Amino acid sequence: MIESIVKPKDGLPLTRHPDLVLISDTPKGRGVFAAKDIPAHTILETCPVLVLDPQENKLHIEKTSLYHYTYNWPTTTATGKPQTTQAVILGLGSMFNHSTADQNVGWERDVINGLVTYKSLREIREGEELCISYGSRLTFVDADAAAQTVDEGDGSLVLGSIEVDDI
Amino acid sequence: MIESIVKPKDGLPLTRHPDLVLISDTPKGRGVFAAKDIPAHTILETCPVLVLDPQENKLHIEKTSLYHYTYNWPTTTATGKPQTTQAVILGLGSMFNHSTADQNVGWERDVINGLVTYKSLREIREGEELCISYGSRLTFVDADAAAQTVDEGDGSLVLGSIEVDDI
What we know:
2 copies of one chain form a homodimer.
Chain A: H1 2-5, E1 12-13, E2 20-26, E3 29-34, E4 43-51, H2 54-59, E5 71-76, E6 82-89, E7 97-98, E8 105-110, E9 115-120, E10 131-132
Parallel strand pairs in A: 7-10
Antiparallel strand pairs in A: 2-3, 4-6, 4-9, 5-6, 8-9
Domain SET (chains A, B): 18-135
Pfam families (chains A, B): SET
InterPro entries (chains A, B): SET_dom (IPR001214), SET_dom_sf (IPR046341)
């Protein structure tokens, strides 16, 4: 029986903050918003990822609109050489819009376990949209009118710091 | 300001049950398990979906392993004719494994809002894996040894009923 071979207490927690809502009709399209105030440094969601085969990614996924939703993901070749592919984020991570001027969400890859965890970078007030920086993956015209010069990092969260997007 | 143009209290709730964990090393690969008992008819997760362009889907996505994670999704052509494409389920819906003999999770599409909601079909005990029926999308050898004849429905949950997979 399954009960005898797995230990759910040793499983990886799949947190999602309970005070998040999806709103469809915004200037950025669908987006995730805070329904209540959320403190700084709060886990917003842990998302499993689907790591794409590098060949399939190059041949197919890069040619579709899905590509714009994927994240860079480190992997290795059959001979152990490092290479980069893409991963699909299976959760709200794929729904967070971009903000250059006022990102309030940072993220961190867990490559071993195939997870991305998102945290609030500062207090997020009720009614605010949750936004990450897409960094160098920005493939559209920035909807933030007062765009600032932005570090083209990859958006990884530096744990214990509210400085992100600078690795 | 964003606060003035959206109403988070009118947003779509993004429920995820708090007692779910991910376990990587199971006979079916990664899977979602109950860390505590979960009552019947409980919402397990509401997942936004990414509806794929039908042309891109046919030309590219169908040729990748990602295809096996997608769900059939109704859409219309430019002239309003019904057609079927695929959607990527952005959440744990993409992580639920298949069970022919003992599925305990049903699901329902919300086509208007681009969501899928998953509910427990019966009480799920601590330690059990959460499994749906892939129905006619079964593209692999069934890991359930005692497989029964199964209705090749599309797995949609009939709300208010524990009879599923029969539409």
